[in-house]
Amino acid sequence: MKLHDLKPNKGSKKSRKRVGRGIAAGQGKTAGRGMKGQGARAGGGTPLYHMGGNLPLFRKLPFMRGKGFTPINRITYNEVNLEQLHDFPADSKISPEILADANLLNDVRSPVVVLGRGNVNVSLNVKCHRISKGARSKIEAAGGTVEIIEQ
């Protein structure tokens, strides 16, 4: 096969519609532009951002965004509370992978933070990216350990 043998697939290319070429062509006279008005005139028509007299979207955006600045690379954590860990047996190792298997994470790619709502009755070995002071003290009071994973 050579470059001059290449052809597009059958039906993938379509010739453009030739408008304004007489009545028999089916698109003569007004050529699909209607009768009169802004769209029928040469060079007429509205700009792309025109919204029929409403305030255009790009002018509305500063008001829709709200106040302040939202950083684009903000880290969103998977929040896991101690009350969600009460089903795990004693001395079990809890890591982001195990939490993902237990369907306790919203987004597997995001880091995990352990928060202190609830109580821990058994010792747990918790590995997470961040932990609150209250959660750390409750886990260590129950005889467990906490290890922080570097991001």
Structural features, described:
The chain has about 150 residues and is of the alpha/beta class. It has a domain at about 80-150: Ribosomal Protein L15, Chain: K, domain 2, CATH 3.100.10. It contains three helices and six strands; from the N terminus they run αββαβββαβ. The protein is elongated.
Question: What's the arrangement of secondary structure elements?
Answer:
Elements: H1 57-65, E1 78-81, E2 92-94, H2 96-101, E3 112-115, E4 124-128, E5 130-131, H3 133-141, E6 145-148
Parallel strand pairs: 1-3, 2-4, 3-5, 4-6
- Widest sheet, order of strands: 1-3-5
What is the CATH architecture descriptor of the domain at 78-148?
A: Ribosomal Protein L15, Chain: K, domain 2
What distance lies between the first and last C-alpha atoms, to the nearest angstrom?
52 Å
The multimeric state of the shown protein is: single chain
Q: Low-confidence runs (pLDDT<50, min 5 residues)? A: none
Give me the CATH fold name of the domain at 78-148: Ribosomal Protein L15, Chain: K, domain 2
Main β sheet profile: 3 strands, parallel
Query: Over all CA atoms, what is the radius of gyration?
Result: 32 Å
Number of strands: 6
Tell me the structural class: alpha/beta
